[in-house]
Amino acid sequence: xxxxxxxxGLIIASIMASAVPLILASCGELITxxxxxxxxxxxxxxxxGAISGFALMTVTGSLIIAVFGAMLAGVLIxxxxxxxxxTLITNxxxxxxxxxxxxxxxxxxxxxxxVGIPGKEFPxxxxxxxxxxxxxxxxxxxxxxxxxxxxxxxxxxSYFLKKTKIGLIVxxxxxxxxxxxxxxxxxxxxxxxxxxxxxxxxxxxxAYLSMIxxxxxxxxxxxxxxxIALALVVFSTWNxxxxxxxxxxxxxxxIIQFHMQAIGVRIPVQFLTALPYIVTIIVLxxxxxxxxxxxxxxxxxxxxxxHKDN
Amino acid sequence: xxxxxxxxxxxxxxxxxxxxxxxxxxxxAGGIIFYILGFKPFEALKFFFIVPIADKYGFSELLLxxxxxxxxxxxxxxxFKSNNWNIGAEGQLTFGAIVSGGVALxxxxxxxxxxxxxVILAGAIGGMIxxxxxxxxxxxxxxxxxxxxxxxxxxxxxxxxxxxVGPWSNPEGFNFPETRQFSDSARLPLLFxxxxxxxxxxxxLAAVVISWFVFYKTYLGFQMKVSGFSLxxxxxxxxxxxxxxxxxxxxxxxxxxxxxVGEITGPIGQLHREVSPDYGFTAIIVAFLGRLHPVxxxxxxxxxxxxxxxxxxAQIFMQIPKYTGQVFxxxxxxxxxxxxxxxxxxxxxxxxxx
Lengths: 310, 354
Description:
The complex is a heterodimer of chains A (310) and B (354).
Chain A: H1 5-34, H2 42-60, H3 63-87, H4 92-111, H5 136-140, H6 145-163, H7 165-175, H8 177-182, H9 187-213, H10 225-235, H11 240-263, H12 269-289, H13 291-297
Helix pairs in contact in A: 1-6, 1-9, 1-10, 1-11, 2-3, 2-4, 2-9, 2-10, 3-4, 3-9, 6-7, 6-11, 10-11, 10-12, 11-12
Chain B: E1 2-6, H1 12-36, H2 41-49, H3 56-81, H4 89-106, H5 115-141, H6 145-165, H7 200-217, H8 219-229, H9 231-236, H10 241-268, H11 279-289, H12 294-318, H13 324-339, H14 341-344, E2 345-349
Antiparallel strand pairs in B: 1-2
């Protein structure tokens, strides 16, 4: 059997493309969680980003406004979460759920007028180099700027957390808000910032889906990716580099469905679609079994409210 | 000058007042949203909250929608009271519907008094089986129940889809994604001629009574309450934590499964692709809005059920998108959580000192 080596490259590239939204959302949520905040609203923030990006692109015609607008929308919606959990000290889990329900509703409401409108072509980089190197060319060249940013993000995030002073502050706030506060760090401010950053990344992840990956608006188009992104953070044991690996696995599962159907494998399509969710559960079980390891890597104050009595 | 002061202990009066405040604030915010969308706010709110329940039929529809919400929320309150975050009730409902539908299909050409009890029981068992997965994974493998129960929602909907399109689809159904009609003996009886409200409401009311008894009159209820306040205290007291986790998940799975039975054996009488318009998720809001209290949950389920009906009416009469219902549901929870601030803090007016 002759396998076209460029075809293999194309498959890998398509797996990477489907991993992009997961990487973006997970890396954002990872920073939020590292500061001790559990935001379950990822799905809601992503879908808000998706509709905002698509709507702004259609209305203004500018891709730049659309991408940054989607990020801003993610920031705005996460501000609700930040205000509730940090200023009004509400429960993180319940607030995150409310955010997701609200986000799905609002996005469908705004999106009503954008159903069926075709998307725009998003410019790709290095297109001229597409046929230079066998196998590697389709992987390395001819993608959108968001694609490249997503694959750099885990490394940037890792560097930020390990090597920069602000990264250290974020980790300190997540691991021991009391001592951080005693050191003069404004815990609430840091957490606000981390939540809003997470919102921006989820907004970008959503915009990638509606503007680049699928280029159109479909109701509920995030389809549980936000929840898988949340699972990826646990999978990574809060290490951004491992998010890359996890996202590639899930990207692979998504892409495999299409190819299995194409070759005519006689497995019900619903089973293949269910695979990412089932694998997520299995992976979570395997990772969490070692409770000591999980306890060591989880930010100690994750999901717990911090209130400084004046 | 206004100063925010921490209360010595949470205020009991405000505990039951804030849900009302939350609903009120939601109405105001909803009016503003309608205004932004270009509708007359008062007229829109009237179509949303008053018109749908203004007649006998509307009231029956309200009860029809409140029934599953109440039933599921009662089950969830067992989980939430004891600090278990089961957010996959939608999946447990779906799986309960699948199992009970399967039993009903076995007897599709038979009549008999024995069929309905089996169908109902099958639904409860289906929900329990499905809820036991996150419970067992949580207790024995330390796995996060939030993510597992949620992933299982997607899986259950795909199983249902597979069944109604494939092996269980009606052989005489022209390839529509639905099963055969159940026999009349497998149907929950309708209560009134011409109205869709069915006997499932008694299941919900039974759940209310039983849960009230368990919460406030039994040792188990006390244990749940303690574990909800502090897991450490529960451990010191020697409560069997693992057993309780599994028990509360089974209870809430059974309730969700029964809600699934009501959805398929009530007015519809067959399995099809969408057995539930996200009742399982909305019930989370109902549980919180009802303050995890059985009586509170009855009221909350009625209030939230209106958002379902209102969304339909408003869409028909004013072309307001039907997702507004979900927006309202999200807002209710936001405002409820926000107004909980008043439980722990109070505003104190202090004379300005110079």
